[in-house]
Amino acid sequence: MTSTSSKPVGIVTGAGSGIGLAVATHLVSKGYRVVIADMNPKTGTATAESLGADAKFIQCDVSSYRAQAQLFKQAYEWGGNRLDFCHANAGVDDRENLYHMKEEVDEEGLVKPLNTKCMEVNMEGVIQGLHLFKYYVRRSKDHNGGKGKFVATSSAAGFYAMTTNPQYTASKYGVIGLTRAAGPELVKEGITVNCICPGFVPTNLCPPGILEVWPKEHITPLTTVTKAIDAFLGDDTMTGQAVELSQGNLYPRPMHDYPNASQRWIAEEAVHIWAKFYAKVPEKAGY
Ligand SMILES: NC(=O)c1ccc[n+]([C@@H]2O[C@H](COP(=O)([O-])OP(=O)(O)OC[C@H]3O[C@@H](n4cnc5c(N)ncnc54)[C@H](O)[C@@H]3O)[C@@H](O)[C@H]2O)c1
């Protein structure tokens, strides 16, 4: 029997419901110890209890850096000073409508800001999650050689556009950009970074009543999500990939093609020039 401390340890955010719940359940079935991170204590606790001793609920709002930093510290310690996997999955749709929000000015006559909670959860929360994941994986060397797998949840809205939710669309494009930029770099030290981009998955994210009118053939089941997780877990070289999930299928999606040789040169060759210059200001670029 595997001892507790030798089991790989994962964090799944938004694990109290839907996609996160399915992934956390899947990981426990594969022998992981999993932290159920969610801002909802009711569903989070229920999920952890249903999964038994290999799951622990930690309440966390991923849009708060401090809360996420506490989450990662507690998860690492609970896991016996190891971290192997993170699914940065928690997400919400636009909390305020860009087009139809109530337009108000403050006492100085300045237009009040748009509520950008959606960006803070879906984008800022994921970047900080990757930052924290890297920190703790590097300190798990005794268990896993400092190697880990980070998966984020983007969306098909990260390739196309959901005009009803411009912030949601922007955040999901952002997650794909983060994946494609950080994936090829972090894999050099054994950390893979990929994201899933699901079509329509029936979860609590969908507004009430929508399932009753949604055609069954346009549903992507949760089994397609766990299939993608298995693909990432089973491949130490797969990184920087935005994988579209539709119906039962996984579609790794390449970046846009370059329109001309100059753009290809800038994207693929000029990286050496950037690196040379950033090397002179390491505190800025981290080189
Ligand atoms: N359902 C779909 O069709 C679909 C398609 C593409 C992408 N996604 C993405 O999948 C992810 C999971 O969504 P879901 O469909 O499972 O929805 P869901 O509503 O069933 O689950 C989301 C979970 O995230 C939690 N959460 C929300 N804000 C949080 C925060 N700030 N900190 C911590 N936890 C928070 C909620 O409490 C909930 O348990 C989201 O990022 C969503 O954008 C969903």
UniProtKB/TrEMBL annotation:
Cross-referenced Pfam families: adh_short
Keyword hit for Glycosyltransferase: no
Family: Belongs to the short-chain dehydrogenases/reductases (SDR) family.
Keyword NADP: yes
PROSITE patterns for the chain: ADH_SHORT
A GO MF term: oxidoreductase activity, acting on the CH-OH group of donors, NAD or NADP as acceptor
GO cellular component, one term: cytoplasm
InterPro entries per the UniProt record, alphabetical: NAD(P)-bd_dom_sf, Sc_DH/Rdtase_CS, SDR_fam
Keywords: NADP, Oxidoreductase
Designated name of the protein: 15-hydroxyprostaglandin dehydrogenase
